[in-house]
Amino acid sequence: MSEVVDVSVPRQSRHIGAYVEMLISSILGLVAAFVLSIDAIALAKDPNAVLACDINPLISCGKVGITWQANLFGWPNSFLGLVTEPIVITLAIAALGGVKFPRWFMLTAQAFYTFGFLFAVWLFLEAYFVIGALCPWCLLITATTTLVFASMTRVNLLDNNFGLKPTAHARVTRWLNMWFDTYIAVLFLTVIIVMIIVKYL
User: Fold this and answer.
1) Can you state the angle between helices 136-158 and 103-125, rounded to 10 degrees?
2) How many Cα atoms sit within 13 Å of 38 on the Cβ side?
3) Per-domain residue ranges for the chain?
4) What predicted TM-score, i.e. pTM, was given to this entire model?
5) 113 contacts 149 by C-beta, under 8 angstroms
6) How many CA atoms lie within 13 A of 128 on its CB side?
7) What are 92-117's pLDDT values in tens digits?
8) How would you write 65-133 as a 3-class SS string?
9) CATH code linked to domain 11-200
């Protein structure tokens, strides 16, 4: 185990803000995944079941939950959140405690969460353009996944886990210190909010 982690990380190198955001977002994502999983079981028993978040035909977890997009791998997508969110929570807590994970681990986490981010965006676009209804809990997962992806990318860039050349890494670090990545994440979420307001509200 001593070869896997190094607990002698200076406080200023722990990326506290990024990991706190990851922790909070993952907890919220886990709650959403848990609720969606309960709803999925209810829909499996009765496809016509009325769920608590079935507000109207346009804002309806039930309408989204019975689609093939919501069960892409043969089971409810929310089950993936029940597995992955606790991993991110554990990672964030350990990192806040001073654990530094090796480069291969962080790159693996980045790869998996990049897939999760793209999957969440795809699901939102399918709900928005194809299904014609939105699920509030799914929207929460879209938001939290975006924020965790942004923070994880920030950490990996600052630690140069992507193996950038010194000049490129210095340039990227300057951009990150100016919070350009945060602006991009906020802009992305703002675009989603505007899309929802324009079409559904």
Assistant:
1) 150
2) 10
3) 11-200
4) 0.89
5) yes
6) 19
7) 999 999 898 999 999 999 999 999 99
8) HCCHHHHCCCCCCHHHHHHHHHHHHHHHHHHHCCCECCHHHHHHHHHHHHHHHHHHHHHHHHHHHHHCC
9) 1.20.1440
